Amino acid sequence: MLSKREYNRYSRHLLLKELGPEGQQKLKQAKVLVVGAGGLGCPVLQYLAAAGVGTIGIVDRDVVELTNLQRQVIFKESDIGYPKAERAADYLRERNSLIEIHTHNTQLSSNNVQKLFEPYDLVVDCTDNFSTRYLINDACAILKKPMVYGSIHRYQGQVSVFHDYRSSENPPSYRCLFPQPPEDGSVMNCAEAGVLGVLPGIVGTVQANEIIKWITGIGDVLSGKLWMLDALTMNTTIMTLKSNYDPAQQTPKDFESLREYSYNFSCDNSEVQQITPKELAGMLQTSDQIQFIDVRENHEGDSPPELKGIRLPMSKLNQQMDSINLNTITVVYCEVGRRSASAIRQLSNEGHIDNLYNLKGGLNHWKQFQQNEHYE
Q1: From CA 235, how far away is CA 238, in angstroms rounded?
Q2: Which of 126, 140, 267, 334 is an active site residue?
Q3: Cβ contact 222:211 at 8 Å
Q4: Helices (H) and strands (E) in the chain, counts
Q5: For the purposes of burial, counting CB atoms within 10 Å of the CB of 4, is it exposed (0-12), middle (13-18) or buried (19 or more)?
Q6: Other Cβ atoms within 10 Å of 123 Cβ, number
Q7: 334 an active-site residue?
Q8: Which end of the chain has less Cβ packing within 10 Å, N or C?
Q9: Is 42 tagged catalytic?
Q10: Count of alpha carbons within 13 angstroms of residue 46, beta-carbon side
Q11: Is 82 helix (H, G, I), strand (E, B) or coil?
Q12: 342 by DSSP, 3-state: which?
C-alpha cells in the first residue's frame, strides 16, 4: 500500500485516471535494471526515480570523464574520476529516499548477465556498443523479460520495446531489427562521431515513458514498433517491426549456450597489443623509428604533429595494406582506439603482429595525457 508521504509525493500521478493509486502501487513494486549510466541512462534513471519505481539497478563499470558532462547531466565536475554507477546512485538517493537503488559497478558479461538480470522485471538498454546490446537482447530472450531499447547517433535517435510477451506471443527481438552486428569498426560511437548533447535527454526520456507505461499497463508501448527521431528537423517516424527471426538459429537457447557464444564484436580490444599514452610518450623520447598509422577518415581532422605518419582511413585499409612497412614498430590509432584495434586485427590476419600496437584510448586519451590529466 502507498504511505501518506507517497500519496503526497506522487499526487500528480494519482490524479491521472488511467494511472491512479493502482498504477503508482505497480511502480512501487517494480524492479528495473538500467544497463549504462551514460547519456541515455541519466534521463532514464532520473525519471524512473522521480516516478517512484521501487527498485532500480544500475550496471556500469566506467568512471565519469570531463567529456561526459556535455550530455550526462546528473554528473558534475567534482564527480570526474569516480564510478558512474555510484555517483548516479548518490544523485538518485538524494532525490527520492522512498526507493531502493542497487549498483553493479561491473562490466556486463556472458558470465554475470543471468545473475544480474533475474531479480528484475525488465531491462533497459542504455549502452553504446553492439557487443553489450546483443548480449542484453539474447539474455532477455532466454528469460522472456522485456528489453527497452534506446540508441543515439549524431542527431538521430531510436526507441523500441523488445520481448514484450504481453503484447504478442511472438514479440520482435533486437535481432529482428539488426540480425547480425555490423562489420568490425564500420560504425563510430559517440566519442568518434559526436552527438548533440540534448539528444540522449530526449531519447532517454522516451525510454522512461515506455518503461512507466509497461509497468502500469497504460497506453500502447512501442512493442513491434520502432520510434525514430531526427533532432535537426524534429521529424519523427514510427516503423512497424515484425518478428522475423528464428531464435533457435540466431539466439543462444539457454545460458549455458550464451556463455559459449562470442559477444566480442567491434568493441573488444583485449586481443591486440596496447600501448598507453604514458608508455608512448616514453618511447618517443628514446626512439625516432616509430611508424604511426592514423585510421580515422579524412574528414575527422589532421593527425597531431608528434604522431604524424601514414593517414590510412579504415574504409581504405584493405586496398592499401601494401603501403605499410610492418618491419618496424608501428602504432595505430583513431579517436578512441576501437577502429585502430580493428585495423590491427586485419593486419594481423596478414601475418603481422609483433610490431603492432594500438594506442589505448586513442587520440582522446593522448590529448588528455598531453594536458597532464594523468591518463595512463
Answers
A1: 10
A2: 334
A3: no
A4: 15, 13
A5: exposed
A6: 28
A7: yes
A8: N
A9: no
A10: 16
A11: coil
A12: helix
